[in-house]
Amino acid sequence: MLTEGEKDCVVAFISSKVPSELSSTELLIPEDHEEFADTGLKRTSVIRLDKIATLSRNLLIGEIGEIGEVL
Predict the structure, then answer these.
(1) Is the dihedral of CA 17, 20, 26, 27 positive or negative?
(2) Cys bridge to 13: 30, 32, 48, 65, which one at CB 3.0-4.6 A?
């Protein structure tokens, strides 16, 4: 979740299919990073900032983890 309001939240797409070259809109989350365990992800992944959506908060079931300040 990028940000949240009273009724809505802004989220970004996360994929474990990591391209050989990252674009300027992709952020790598490597599984050997010290904060990786906090993410709730199972393997190295990429956040796709070119795929952002606004969702109603009542559509969210829960969180799997979080991205730390270092990542």
Answers:
(1) positive
(2) 48
Output the six-digit token pair for 47. 């956040």
In the chain, % helix, strand, coil (3-state, to 5) comes to: 10, 35, 55
C-alpha pair distances (Å), 43 with each of 28, 29, 32, 33, 56: 11, 9, 9, 11, 28
59-68 pLDDT per residue, tens = 988 888 888 8
Strands 8-15 and 45-56: antiparallel
pTM: 0.80
**How many CB atoms neighbour CB 58 within 10 A?**
7
Nearest to 55 by CA among 5, 10, 13: 10
**Type and span of the H or E element at 39:** helix 36-39
